[in-house]
Design brief:
The protein is an all-alpha fold and about 400 residues long. It contains 20 helices and no strands. It is about 80% helix and about 0% strand. Helix 2 packs antiparallel against helix 7 and helix 15 packs antiparallel against helix 16. It is elongated.
Amino acid sequence: MLRCARGSKESHPGDVLATRSRVACGGISLMAILAVEAPRLAPSFASLPDRGDWAVAGATATCALMAAVPFLLARMAPRAAGFDTQWLPSAPSHWAWFLGMILILLVGGGAATWLARLRAPDPCPYQGLVGDAYYLAHGPATFALVGVLDVFAGPIAQELFWRAYVLEQLRKLTHWSVALLSQALLFALSHWGTLHQQGPLVFIPLFWYGTVLGSWRIRFRSLLPLVLAHVALNSAALVPALWAHYDNSAAVWSKPQLAQIDLLATESAEKAMPALIDFIADLDEVVSAHALEVLGRDFRSEAEPYLKAALASRDGRTVERALFAVELYSYSGLKPQVRAIAWSPGDRTIQAAAILTLRGLEDEEGLAGISREHPNQQLRQVAAEMLRECQARKWGR
């Protein structure tokens, strides 16, 4: 009896081996997850001034590791890290179930997204730059690469890693239902960048996708339908925004002056305003208009002395655009300079522009003098008409 009792407490050699096998399997799986996520986690632990520069490289490295690490581990430890790579369905009828899976993913994911009230996704991984400078720093080729990674390479790598490898390893450790939910949880959390940008509620549809895709893997085994479903999901969610980013970037790269103007907004007025005046005089109306916008937004209180110097320029385009800026932002202190341009001999187009500027500044005295005494009859008529408009506007108040 004593021997039997003592024997019942002794561990069976098979149990010890099974326990060791589970520990090895769990440890290898944990190391695999940390290894594939390391490139994306690295910027969070490093003091990088612009983590956006790391984003594409980190995503590329992560995809490569997701695809390579499972096969490397399976080769090194086939018993603890082996997994099945069945790509095609074993029966043609499975493709009918595939259509059902697509419907479940879209309906369930759409409902989860609606319940979570998520913002429209922004797949662009860059942060820290705004406006046109954002697109100049990361050109059209970058957004094309992001599209290839997110829509094609990413789904292949993620299905290989999460559904073919991680889910298989978890099933060796626990019940299939626990393994399924654990894999879905880890899959959702691996999208930490999306969770950070769009809010924690994006976890709901991500967890749903991981659960449905994992259920297919357990029931039907084949990986190609999972990859196709994942590609379809990412295409629907990401392609419209990626296309818009690509178009914006291509437009900016065709006019890099726009980004240069945005970068001037970060400089002091002393350094930025001379260059901004040059951009205001640019022959491209889009560039000129953007420079005027930045002037009014960032340097309105400091621009008057620089516009005064521009009004004295010998370049007609610079004078004309400076006149427009004076009128647009109502620099009344520059009335004497505008009057002088209206009276000075030279280009009648610029003189007329000065008269229009005086109307915008509501300089009735200056307009009255020009309408009576200017040597050019046409300009006198223009000034008289502008004076009437000023008076009518004044009476209308």
